[in-house]
Write a structure and sequence with these properties.
single chain; about 425 residues; mainly alpha; Growth Hormone, Chain: A; 13 helices
Length: about 425
């Protein structure tokens, strides 16, 4: 399999502890930045109620479609290192532009909506390319042992982010959180510059070279194997159910909290509860679960938890119950599902790790957002209750479980082969 080899006798193996520590620091900075901005984005998104959200989801999907060939072109022409530095540096710079516009109150309604779309694009790109780099740095067995620690770094960042937001809203104002988030992305750019250097990605493995291929190669590669096709379906179901819960959370926030700052605090509190729960699971359970159950079987945990959450919401919703379901599901995703599915990309060729993965993580993800957003809008226009929507989500959760079973049966040999290598 192309580019499947890791450091050979011709290239001394880089220090694994240094890679893990630096990777965890980068993951911390990425999630701190993202988690600081998500409550701000969500608050701006429901400023005029939840009605505009399907439109914003559609705009985000369109921007993703436009960004995909740009990323495909860049990854075909640029070596890993300048590609990664460029991604984080560009998004950090544009964040400062939004800060200037929001501070100057230039068309605040339109800028706020543009920021919602921009942040929804950025958060997927920066996370996707980071884990693509991790798939270059670690083998499948190493991923099962070490991804939990790297993900724990991300979770600590995700705890720091909403904590900074909750404090910052009162003391420096919402807008001034943006340059702080930009600074975290700047640190990430420096970290990935080191991780993508020849010391960690030896030149004899051709990882210092551009990936090549066409600008739309990610679309083709995403449907080139049963594993990747299964992951496309996985992300569609994952995103549609996530969006349903997100929209219900947004509706509750708009109904229960009068001001933007109050909504920002609510979203940040849910994030904080989710991340504190996550870090405990990551440090105690994730490594053991991945090592004993394997990546494919670990994927079952999230849809089963989602099924339980939807069943509980089918009896009625409240702010506390909905916040608990969202926080618990997010914790399980970060602690178990993300490390498991990211480890699967260590089993595919280098071009697929970046291009197919980026297409799945971004375009497929936001397509699911858009479909679920409009479906939710259509059902609510017919006065469907939150309990009814939860009941309608149960068959999707069951389909999700069935899809993972199919993936385990058809592609599980890849994991066993990689573990035996």
């Amino acid at each position: 399999m192309e580019d499947a080899a890791r450091p050979t006798q011709d290239a001394p193996a880089p220090p694994r502890l240094a890679i893990v520590v630096l990777s965890a620091i980068c993951a911390f900075c990425i999630l701190a930045s993202f988690s600081m901005l998500r409550p701000v984005r969500d608050s701006l998104g429901v400023r005029d109620g939840t009605g505009p959200l399907p439109v914003l989801f559609t705009a985000t999907f369109v921007v993703m479609l436009l960004a995909t060939p740009v990323f495909g072109w860049a990854s075909a022409k640029l070596p890993r290192r300048p590609l990664l530095i460029g991604v984080y540096g560009f998004f950090s710079a544009t964040l400062l532009v939004f800060w200037g516009l929001l501070t100057a109150e230039v068309a605040p309604e339109h800028v706020g909506r543009a920021f919602y779309v921009w942040q929804s694009v950025v958060n997927l790109f920066v996370v996707s390319v980071f884990w693509s780099l991790m798939a270059d740095l670690f083998t499948s067995p190493e991923a099962k042992r070490l991804y939990g620690y790297i993900a724990a770094g991300a979770t600590l960042g995700a705890i720091a982010g909403p904590s900074i937001t909750t404090f910052g809203v009162e003391h420096i104002g919402t807008n001034n959180l943006l340059p702080l988030a930009a600074g975290f992305l700047g640190v990430t750019a420096s970290g990935v510059a080191i991780l993508a250097s020849p010391t960690f990605l030896p030149r004899n493995e051709r990882r210092s070279q551009p990936l090549g291929g066409g600008v739309l190669a990610g679309v083709r590669l995403a449907f080139s194997s049963k594993l990747l096709i299964g992951l496309v379906g996985y992300f569609l179901l994952f995103t549609m159910l996530s969006t349903f819960l997100y929209l219900e959370q947004a509706a509750v926030a708009k109904r229960e909290f009068a001001t933007s700052d109050e909504r920002t605090k609510f979203f940040a509190t849910v994030d904080l509860v989710a991340q504190v729960s996550t870090v405990a699971l990551q440090l105690v359970v994730t490594r053991a679960l991945l090592a004993t159950a394997g990546s494919f079987r670990t994927l079952f945990v999230l849809p089963i938890a989602t099924l339980v959450g939807l069943a509980s919401l089918s009896f009625g919703t409240s702010t506390a119950l909905l916040g608990g379901v969202v926080a618990g599901r997010r914790a399980i995703d970060y602690a178990f599902a993300r490390p498991a599915r990211e480890s699967l990309f260590t089993m595919v060729p280098a071009e697929s790790r970046y291009k197919a993965k980026n297409f799945i993580d971004t375009v497929v993800y936001r397509f699911g957002d858009m479909v679920a957003g409009w479906a939710d809008f259509a059902l609510k226009s017919r006065d469907a209750s939150a309990a009814t929507l939860a009941i309608l989500g149960i068959p999707l959760a069951l389909l999700w479980i069935g899809l993972i079973a199919w993936l385990n049966r058809t592609s599980g040999q890849l994991e066993r082969r990689a573990d035996g290598a």
